[in-house]
Amino acid sequence: MKWVSTKSEGKMLFKSKLKWVALAGLVLSALSLFTHFLLAKHTYGTISEYHSSVTIISWRPKFKKSDLSTNNPSNRRLWAPVRRLESLHPHANPSGDYAAPEIQSTGFIFVKIRGGFHEIRNAISDVVAVSRLLNATLVIPEIQSTTSSKGISTQFKSFPYLYNEDQFIAALAKDVKIVKTLPKNLKGARRKKEIPSFKVPHGASPYYYLHHVLPMLTKHSVVELLVSSGGCLQSILPPHLVEYQKLRCRVAFHALRFREEVQNLAIKILNRLRASGQPFIAYDPGMTRDALAYYGCEELFQDVHTELIMHRRAWMIKRRLLKGNLSSDSAENYRNGLCPLMPEEIGILLRAYGYSSDTIIYISGGEVFGGLKKLIPLHAMFENVVDRTSLSSSMEWDKVYGRETNLVDEYSVAPPLANLDMKTKSWKTSGPRPRPLPPPPARPKMYNVEGWWGWVAESDNEPESTIVELRTNAHRLLWEAIDYMVSIEADAFITGFDRDGKGNPNLASLVAGHRFYQSPASRTYGLDRKEIAKLFEEIRDSLYQPNGTWITSLHKQLRRSLTDGLLEESKKSKPLSFLSFPVPECSCKVDDSTKRPVNASSSPLPHSEIPVFLGQVDQCPAWMNGHSSSQSREETEEDNEKDDSASLGLFFGLSNDNQEGEIGDVSNKEEALVEDQEELEGGER
């Protein structure tokens, strides 16, 4: 009995030990969980910084062994500055008699701006000039694309969503008085719609503001301007208003600085592009649905996207945004240069001109209508085709977007389940049997902007934008801001199309204008699409097997585009958008005669001559003459002749045997000299 009692006591002791061990384990587990949550809370910022420092991007560059030295004639021809334009420099400073804004203003101007990135930028520079013209106080403009969106960060609403508000006010302190909000009494009147409002037409003249807006501004002390089509001031102003043109440049190129988060991400992307030490090309396809519909380019697509373009064109005609017929001859429009060049065609141009297959190409300008499949040929020709998504992480973009609320679309919410009692009651009171089955409930169609549009085949009306798409529209402004900064700093820039869905210059035109202001000699190709279309018509049946004569003609065309393309740009774009070509108003020329090489020929150097079509360019101040970036090394005719011949073999691996047979006509000495002279000039005189 004693042994049995001892055994039972041992079991009890063992069970009690197990209980204490289990209790201790639970306590330790609870403590570990508490410690984990505490550490996670206090180290979130550190972890985020760590992740951003070791960001893993999807781009894995592939490069061949290439000579990037300036002594290589091919590199000079592809990447060197355009020497005819090296004496141009940015100069938007006001003249000596430019007065500061008067202390007593005529009233407040409140502006609402609708539109895309390029329209917002044009409108802001114009309203600043209008405020100066009317001696008015400008209230920070309201960007409707952000205020109408749901779920975006409240930290960056309206103007601060894109730009640095304090920098904008400080940079223009000597030009216009700017405030962040209206006074309380005027703010209440605006909410009650008791202030005069003007829906400003595109390109309104100074007369419109002085004789229509100014009297109402003086009477009510405040007016509201509604700008929905980009520029709200006449692009080309009379000569006596040249200071307002310079003011536009100071606004667009100096005062409008992106907020810190946007700038930081753009700098990171630029650093990643340049980490390899290779130059890169920024390419803006310009293929948007609205632009394709406006110019009647639907037949460039052979799928559902054709129907989407036709829907948009019909919508434009119905609202009198477009005059013309629903159907149009897309082939004829393409031949007239009214349709964009496809990414495949741009790839062929670059390869034929001599850019190697490992050249870095950055795709800018937002989404390409038609999806990524339109970029497949370009990816096949160039190994390093990248965009903002392949050079950044989602965590970095979260910092740019700010803290956003989680949106639940009404279409994604399951309908509530019916009560069982209600079902039974409905069944008993529904009439005699047998009863046919009811039709299935109508389901809202889910569609994606870049996916399959299911509504096209069933409805003539496009579905309303979901709340998720409204937020995406606001995000698109940030995407284009990043692309804008990267494209400005690119070693070369080329675009497939330079018009938007209203017939006005698009984002690519603003990039070209900014580049021409900031670094006029940088390689910005102003393609003549009509001439390029003629060249492609010649080899339409053998795009990837052009002959030497065709490639030589293409070389000449691209060389002309570096200078003569600017002439075409000034004729077409400047009357619609001053920022697309801010020359000669915001530029000056330096005297580089003292920097000419000693061994130069006795004939005048063409690169020292400013093209006549740029107009009368003022002489730069004396302190700027020491900053000329003219290259001291002159290319020889032999270098250019050898390089032009060798580049023929770069186009999709043409053999040397083929070169000898195809370039016989080019070997003519007189023709080679003409081409060499054009190469030196960067275009024809």
Automatic annotation (TrEMBL):
Name the major location: membrane
Known pathway: Glycan metabolism
Species per Swiss-Prot/TrEMBL record: Nicotiana attenuata (Coyote tobacco)
Q: How does it sit in the membrane?
A: Single-pass type II membrane protein
Q: Which GO MF term does the entry hold, naming one?
A: glycosyltransferase activity
- Family in the record: Belongs to the glycosyltransferase GT106 family.
Q: What is this protein called?
A: O-fucosyltransferase family protein
**Which InterPro entries does the UniProt record give?**
FucosylTrfase_pln, GDP-Fuc_O-FucTrfase
According to the entry, what is the taxonomic lineage of the organism? Eukaryota, Viridiplantae, Streptophyta, Embryophyta, Tracheophyta
Q: Give the domain of life.
A: Eukaryota
Region entry Disordered, spans: 623-685
Question: Where in the cell does this protein reside?
Answer: Membrane
